[in-house]
Amino acid sequence: MLRKFRKNLENKIYILRNKGNIKLSDYKIIKNNFSGKKLNIIVLTYADHSFVKNNSINVLKDFGKVFLYVMTQKTHERDWYSKKQKINEDMLSFVYEIVKDNKIDVIICHLSGHSTTPIILEKLKKLNIPMVNESLDDEAKFRSRKGKDGYYRGMKDICKYFNVSLTTSKSAIVKYLVEGGNPIYKDYCANEKIYKNLNLEKEYDVGFIGQGYGIRTEYINYLLTNNISVYTKGPGWDNGFASDDEMIEVFNKSKIVLGFSTVGKNDDVFILKGRDFEVPLTGSFYLTGYHKELEEYFKIEHDIGTYNSKEDLLKKVKYYLENEEEREKIANNGYERCINNYTAKKSYEKLFGYLSL
Asked: Which pLDDT tens digit goes with each residue over 297-353?
């Protein structure tokens, strides 16, 4: 409750600091005006974890040539701040070398105040190449706490250096505006070439891929103690880490794929997740924690299933395991909804059209 209070207070302060009302429609790209030309793209990312790799990097390769710089292979390095400056200088040198020999159309970033600094971004900005940053955790981490170098670990100190800041958080739009950024609300999406139906036999009643902690372990243990078979894979579970291929295989082999809509260890802050779109694209039935924003993308209990508590989760799991025909119909509806509206390729096409590319 304290986290939620602080987050609500932060939101109210930003609203008071902003002058004028905000219409979400003013910060969405509606039309697809992309020229279709081949692009030279630099991608700068803190780490190439599965969501960034599958739904950004691999998608961008279809648009032309991608020059990729990955800052680290580990996302939670304890000694990161002892390396941060040197790695950022190396990243800057990488960009300078690429720009010398190539006409770059756009720089796509997956960065934050934790991974980079205003000093580096100011130098990149002087190249006069459109810079776009994608941020997925703005609902909980627009500011975050300050790092050892004095910069906020979220987007607060760095957003003004990008031509466009893509956010999936409505509440963050006003924060970007107050801090000098140019926010665009990005519909969530996934890469249909990777997240696809493999036509595998269903082996697991319930499958979950992701780290085990907090509400996740509580709810899954509750299912287990009530004799529901749950196959789990990821850090913190006995079956260990799941590769991308294993993840998609588990999605395909599960009668029900379980999702959680909470942010980190915050059990009272809810956001859209990549899983909300990745799982339906595999043709499997998806069951996740309810929050209102899901209704803007899906028809609840028509395209996906939702639950409101661990008791409700158990009830829904039992029901959908017993009603295969209904479960599979919802899974098919979810697939059609995502394949027709929420693919990563369509999302990038609209962005590039917005940038007059």
From this structure: 999 999 999 999 999 999 999 999 999 999 999 999 999 999 999 999 999 999 999
CA atoms within 13 A on the CB side of 110: 21
Short-list 242, 241, 234, 252, CA closest to 195:
252
Indicate whether 12 and 111 sit together in one domain. yes
Share of the chain above pLDDT 70, in %: 93
Mean pLDDT for all residues in the chain: 91
Kindly list the distances between the CA atom of residue 20 and the CA atoms of 14, 16, 23, 179, in Å, as whole numbers in the listed order. 12, 9, 10, 15
**Residue range(s) defining the domain that contains residue 286:** 204-341
Residue type, 8: N
Q: Closest by alpha carbon to 44, among 99, 88, 97?
A: 88
Note whether 272 and 188 are within 8 A (CB). Answer: yes
Q: Are residues 162 and 233 in the same domain?
A: no
In terms of C-beta density within 10 A (0-12 exposed, 13-18 middle, 19 or more buried), how is residue 19 classed?
exposed
**Would you give the DSSP letter of residue 193?**
T
| Beta pairing class for 204-209 and 262-263 | unpaired
CATH of the domain at 287: 3.40.50.2000
Lookup result for tokens 């924690």 = 289
Please state, in angstroms and rounded to a whole number, the distance separating the CA atoms of residues 239 and 112. 32
Ranges of residues in the chain whose predicted pLDDT is under 70: 1-13, 15-16, 19-20, 264-269
Q: Residue 79 falls within a domain, yes or no?
A: yes
**Rounded Cα distance, 136 and 312, in Å:** 28
